[in-house]
Amino acid sequence: MAKQPRVLAGQVAAITGAARGIGKATARAFVRKGMKVAIGDLDLELAQRTAEELGGGARAYALDVTDRASFAAFLDGAAADLGPLDVLVNNAGIMQLGPFLQEDDATAVRQIDINVHGVLHGMKLGLPPMVERGRGHLVNIASSAGKGGFPGAATYCGTKHFVVGVSEAVRLELRGTGVELSCVMPGLVNTELASGVGSARGFKNAEPEEVAEAIVDALEVPRFDVFVPRSIGPTTAVLGLLPRRGREALVSVLKADTILTQVDEGARRAYELRAARSEPGLEPGDEQKQLTS
User: Does 156 qualify as catalytic in the annotation?
Assistant: First the structure.
């Protein structure tokens, strides 16, 4: 017998990096479900415009996920304005492409600060009140890149492997607390982050709304593994059963081994430069090294 979906109306959710892309689509989906949503973003002006556009009790807050004090202020402000947090979506993240041996240190540090420490800050600050209340749901946005290695995005893949791994471990630590944890692992999604990137053979790039709906589904009927599209799940399972040569041969057939090395630099340039300035405490590195050669 199918589980009865949980009612989300009236719940309070906080989403990082929610002024655009997957975060914005998720905020919109939550508002449609009758949830109250805190939109956190480094770009406060854009977050405010997003909140105004969505209406329905959405509120905008300044947020630098790499700064623990900023993250704490975001969660405290959301709780004060909207009520105790029921859902936290760790969505903020960046992907800078290029050959690993040409990657400058600033690029690597920036991705680790945002994609790793940003998630850790959210988990360490957001989970304790949920555990104390005996309920809540944490959603970490990882990537299918957290299940494999893709040339052209070595550091990004490493950060997403971390998100998958820490999510797996903490999920087990939360057993019996009443707090759920989901790990969302999309393939390529048609957002600015994937600008200039093609698609793998046999896989259509997802839309941010598809990821948002998958997150809603995981809140209504809790589950840990959330692949978008769902077909990535079985493919990942099959790859895991193959010996390395077979796995790499299949990846080559799918052209997944070149998808992040053969990109349209012109279409990607604006995103790469914005990502290079997405950590306020870190000076941008050599701009040319931020771009795929």
Answer: yes
Question: DSSP 3-state assignment of 69?
Answer: helix
Confidence check: pLDDT of 121 > 90: yes
Q: In the structure encoding, which two tokens stand for residue 14, read together?
A: 């906080």
Average pLDDT, stretch 217-246?
A: 90
Out of 61, 156, 162, 227, the active site residue is 156
Please, which residues bridge with residue 136 across strands?
A: 179
Closest CA to 11 of 71, 52, 44, 56: 56
The CATH superfamily of 12-290 is NAD(P)-binding Rossmann-like Domain (3.40.50.720)
CB neighbours of residue 173 within 10 Å: 12
Q: What is the CA radius of gyration of the chain?
A: 18
CA distance 19 to 62: 10
CA 199 to chain centre: 19
Of 149 and 212, which is predicted with more confidence? 212
Domain chopping of the chain, boundaries: 12-290
**Nearest CA among 187, 184, 188 for reference residue 167:** 184
Q: Per the confidence metrics, is the pTM higher than 0.70? A: yes
Are 33 and 9 within 8 A, CB to CB? yes
Spatial distance between the Cα atoms of 129 and 107, rounded to a whole number of angstroms: 34
Burial of 175 (0-12, 13-18, 19+ CB in 10 A): exposed
244-253 vs 232-241: helix axis angle to the nearest 10? Answer: 140
Whole-Å CA distances, 264 to 206, 241, 260, 289: 19, 34, 10, 15
